């Protein structure tokens, strides 16, 4: 990767800080509208994002009208951005105005087993708010993230993500801290829905297509005995807030490929129920099995 200039990093930091302040100063609904205008600008300014989303939808959901789903994807990103901007103002006293639970009993039963909980989550709904709010509504947790390329923005993101007491585990050195958290019967969230290179992953079926995924999540779950709970913060337009939905645990058998497939089947089910809230602009099927042509 090319070395980033300090000037570029600083400019990006100033721009993001200004955007967050502009959104934080506004009431949530107004902040979402402003962020929505920015996302529509981004959609027009970077057309490859929509092209990627339309290609993904053609691969995964050929029978669904694609344009409304892509529009919903950008609208969902606007809600994520507006919520993150308000993190300094979200407290135990007002968090339930933003989000509530559904299926909390699955988490309670998993915690009662005493071996920690692995949240299998993804870029569906509001993945930032889900961890942030869980810390306020129940207890702080850890989650694994890929460090941002801009170290100044990475530090800012960590500052926001930890305001509610959570701990960020960078992908470069997370394993020991993750295992320690599970041994302490804590919860750890992992985003499982990103493409990985063939040397790091295995191929499973995802929306009827082979997708390359990291099987380390399933191996870790079996090794530690942690319960695997799919969980997503899903937008409920009628209620005007998110629902942090926990699904029944996914049993781990010790067969890494079969267990990885089972976890992604739960993710796929959730995406199919809420297609306009997933991050379709990511080239999820980029890595192909040997001999297969590229899909993008």
Characterize the structure shown.
With 296 residues, this protein is α/β, with parallel strands linked by helices. It contains ten helices and nine strands. The chain has helices at residues 6-24, 28-45, 47-60, 66-85, 104-112, 127-137, 151-161, 175-183, 216-224, 256-273; strands at 99-102, 117-121, 142-145, 167-170, 187-191, 202-206, 209-213, 227-236, 241-246. It has a seven-stranded mixed sheet with strand order 1-9-8-2-5-3-4, sandwiched between helices. It has a two-stranded antiparallel sheet with strand order 6-7. Strand 8 (227-236) and strand 9 (241-246) form a beta hairpin. Helix 1 (6-24) packs parallel to helix 7 (151-161). The radius of gyration is 19 Å and the shape is globular. The two termini are 21 Å apart.
How much helix, percentage-wise, in residues?
40-55%
In percent terms, what proportion of residues is strand? 15-25%
The ordered string of helix (H) and strand (E) elements is HHHHEHEHEHEHEEEHEEH
Report strand order across the widest sheet.
Answer: 1-9-8-2-5-3-4
State the total count of DSSP E strands. 9
Gross morphology is globular
What does the largest sheet look like?
Answer: 7 strands, mixed
| Computed Rg | 19 Å
| End-to-end separation | 21 Å
From the structure above, extract its key features:
296 residues; alpha/beta; seven-stranded mixed β-sheet; two-stranded antiparallel ribbon; 10 helices
Task: Please summarize what this structure is.
This protein is an alpha/beta fold.
How are the elements arranged and paired?
Layout (H helix, E strand, L loop, with lengths): L5 H19 L3 H18 L1 H14 L5 H20 L13 E4 L1 H9 L4 E5 L5 H11 L4 E4 L5 H11 L5 E4 L4 H9 L3 E5 L10 E5 L2 E5 L2 H9 L2 E10 L4 E6 L9 H18 L23
């Amino acid at each position: 990767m090319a070395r980033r200039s300090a000037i570029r990093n600083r400019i990006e930091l100033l721009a993001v800080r200004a955007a967050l302040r502009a959104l934080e100063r506004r009431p949530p609904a107004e902040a979402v509208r402003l962020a929505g205008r920015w996302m529509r600008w981004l959609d027009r300014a970077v057309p490859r994002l929509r092209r990627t989303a339309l290609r993904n939808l053609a691969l995964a959901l050929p029978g669904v009208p694609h344009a409304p789903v892509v529009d919903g994807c950008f609208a969902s990103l606007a809600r994520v951005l507006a919520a993150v901007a308000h993190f300094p103002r979200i407290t135990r006293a007002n968090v339930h105005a933003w989000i509530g639970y559904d299926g909390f009993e699955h988490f309670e039963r998993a915690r009662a087993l005493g071996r920690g909980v692995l949240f299998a989550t993804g870029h569906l709904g509001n993945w930032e708010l889900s961890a942030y709010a869980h810390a306020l509504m129940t207890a702080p947790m850890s989650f694994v993230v890929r460090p941002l390329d801009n170290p100044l923005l990475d530090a800012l993101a960590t500052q926001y993500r930890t305001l509610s007491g959570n701990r960020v585990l960078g992908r470069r050195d997370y394993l020991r801290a993750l295992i320690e958290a599970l041994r302490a019967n804590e919860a750890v969230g992992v985003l499982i829905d990103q493409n990985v290179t063939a040397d790091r992953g295995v191929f499973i079926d995802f929306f009827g297509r082979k997708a390359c995924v990291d099987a380390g999540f399933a191996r870790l779950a079996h090794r530690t005995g942690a319960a695997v709970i799919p969980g997503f913060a899903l937008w409920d337009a009628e209620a005007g807030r998110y629902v942090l939905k926990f699904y029944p645990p996914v049993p781990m058998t010790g067969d890494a490929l079969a267990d990885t497939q089972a976890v992604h089947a739960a993710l796929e089910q959730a995406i199919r129920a809420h297609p306009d809230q997933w991050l379709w602009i990511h080239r999820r099927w980029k890595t192909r099995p040997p001999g297969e042509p590229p899909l993008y």
